[in-house]
Amino acid sequence: MSLFEWKDQYSVGYLPIDIQHKRLFQLADELHAAMLAGKGKDVQSRTLHELIVYTKQHFGTEEGLMQKAGYPDYPRHKAEHDKLTKQVVDFQKNFESGAASLTITLLQFLKDWLSHHIGETDQKIAAFLREKAA
Q1: Average pLDDT, the chain
Q2: Tell me, what's the pLDDT at 1?
Q3: Cα dist. 62→16, 45, 100, 112, 121 in Å?
Q4: Do 47 and 30 form a contact (C-beta atoms < 8 A)?
């Protein structure tokens, strides 16, 4: 069973964002699989890089939607995005330098963050956007 399993409860009801969220889970699962299979550092590094790049793109999409809609909790939500981005970029630097390695603890952190952020925080944005559209 995958550590990063998409669940319907994560759906925010806005297809473009749901597609991006599913892709984030898929990329995180690929990183997990590379670690479990003992893939070399180059494969893990490429997979981690792809996950980080896609996460930044996704955050940009969400932030654009929030700004366009005048989402009142935008500053706090953006701060969450910025904090995670900094954490994973710092980890990537340490990983590339050999000062850190992929561990189940890191992957569990990513899983918990994705599950909480999508399952709770992003649900609030979706509710706001639905209400605003009504």
Answers
A1: 90
A2: 61
A3: 10, 26, 30, 19, 12
A4: yes
CB 63 within 8 A of CB 74: yes
**Residue length of the chain:** 134
What pLDDT is stored for residue 81 in this prediction? 95
pLDDT per position as a tens digit, 28-72: 999 899 888 888 788 889 989 999 999 999 999 999 999 999 999
What is the CATH code of the structural domain delimited by 15-133? Answer: 1.20.120.50
Q: Round to whole Å and give the CA distance between 86 and 18.
A: 23
Burial 36-64 (b: 16+ CB within 10 A, else e): eeebeeebbbebbeebbebbeebbeebbe
DSSP state of 98: T
